């Protein structure tokens, strides 16, 4: 019984992650910036260090939902 409950909790967590990823992608694809911003906490940190990125996100980690959204928005374009 405990194993079944643990498996169910794992499957629920996976589904929540899948839904979050789908919302993230939909928000960027449709340029729904308020929805995109709602996916981050105010103390979120997005770090692209070492990744091949555009100039809009180079220069160190992005801190906070509004900074993350603005950088991605510039990179995607309005």
Structure description:
It is a single chain. The protein is mainly alpha-helical. Helices cover 59% and strands 5% of the residues. It has a two-stranded antiparallel sheet. It is elongated.
Q: Structural class given helices, strands, pairing? A: mainly alpha
Instruction: Trace the largest sheet across and list its strands.
Output: 1-2
Percent of residues in beta strands? 5-15%
**Which H/E pattern describes the elements?**
HHEEH
> Could you name the ranges where pLDDT drops below 50 across 5 or more consecutive residues?
none
Shape: elongated
Helix fraction?
Answer: 55-70%
Rounded to an integer in angstroms, the radius of gyration calculated over CA atoms is: 16 Å
Query: What's the helix count?
Result: 3
Average residue-wise pLDDT: 89
Distance between the termini: 51 Å
**How many strand units?**
2
Major sheet details:
2 strands, antiparallel
List keywords for this structure.
78 residues; mainly alpha; two-stranded antiparallel ribbon; 2 strands
Task: Quickly describe the structure.
59% of the residues lie in helices and 5% in strands.
Topology:
Blueprint: H1 2-29, H2 33-38, E1 45-46, E2 62-63, H3 65-76
Antiparallel strand pairs: 1-2
């Amino acid at each position: 019984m405990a194993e079944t409950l643990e498996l169910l909790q794992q499957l629920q967590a996976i589904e929540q992650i899948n839904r979050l990823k789908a919302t993230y992608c939909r928000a960027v694809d449709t340029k729904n910036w308020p929805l995109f911003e709602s996916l981050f906490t105010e103390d979120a940190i997005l770090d692209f260090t070492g990744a091949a990125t555009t100039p809009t996100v180079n220069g160190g980690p992005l801190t906070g939902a509004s900074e993350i959204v603005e950088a991605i928005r510039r990179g995607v374009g309005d």
